[in-house]
Amino acid sequence: MDADARPVALITGVAGQDGTYLSELLISRGWQVHGVARTDPSTTDTGQYLTGVTVHIQDIANTDATVDLIDRIEPDHVFHLAGISSVWKSWQDPVLTTRVNGLSVVGVLDGCLTLQDRVGKRVTVVNASSAEIFAGSGISPQDENTPIVPTSPYGASKAFAHHMVQVYRAKGLAASNAILYNHESPRRPDTFVTRKITKAVTAIAAGEQDVLELGDTSAVRDWGWAPEYVEAVYEMATLSHGDDVVVATGEARSVEDFVATAFACVGIADWRRHVTRSSVLRRAADPESLVGNSAKAQRLLSWSPRHSFDAVVREMLVGDGAPVTER
């Protein structure tokens, strides 16, 4: 492919789990990829996954810098993945969460609309929305028509971003919301409960740790495989129009299911003696069940998940070096 004819992409949050998988996917398809990172990824573990990516270091909440970057790069597609992604952290610093997750999307959308008007070419945006926007809906499973009722600062900030995408779509920008349900991989930071579990189970199996401390293990989630979810994000960028699409497996599993499966994978049947529960680790207003209906993604994107729940858990354990048993 002629280098000048290659699609140009800009990925915010390029050094995160989704950003690294998406950049690898786009580069494998011949795209030019630029990425925004808060700090130099070459000094972190994720730097190894960004070969071929032109990385720009900036605060994504600095909207002027974002608009300027989009103006200079002139991307065809922008994937907005950056932001504070921890519900727990959003309660610790709701002001920062609102600033980062709220302002950043406005900078991206306005920069893209301004670029589109200036150069006369179509610019597409895919925003990483979240299942947490539905946390207080009382409806399960959720789909694109479920009422948006967030119950945390994180969920509220993502709901704002979700609505701003719709506002700019009405202004003529091909902007989409990928409503992503929980999706995991070995690249998931250990601040997330799934990675905390797999790292602890690996250590317990090796005799290096005895106890895994968790909060509420009854919460039900919909867990998928991150590399597959970025495929859906990519497909959304190729649509002829902007849209809102749930990306999920539709399978309801509790945190306790995740724990039990992880211990079973390393041959520990009596897992309960290794697990303690702490009220300190419980999340405020934690929704009981966030499970998505991805029928629209299957119809519109020809996308469906391939990894089973057990396969996701096993691959995370393998990534952590656990002695996974044959099943």
Automatic annotation (TrEMBL):
Its EC number is 4.2.1.47. The keyword Lyase applies. Residues 10-316 form the NAD(P)-binding domain. Pfam families: GDP_Man_Dehyd. Keywords: Lyase. Its cofactor is NADP(+). InterPro entries: GDP_Man_deHydtase, NAD(P)-bd_dom, NAD(P)-bd_dom_sf, Sc_DH/Rdtase_CS. It is an enzyme of class 4 (lyase). Belongs to the NAD(P)-dependent epimerase/dehydratase family. GDP-mannose 4,6-dehydratase subfamily. This is GDP-mannose 4,6-dehydratase. It comes from Rhodococcoides corynebacterioides. The lineage of its organism: Bacteria, Bacillati, Actinomycetota, Actinomycetes, Mycobacteriales.
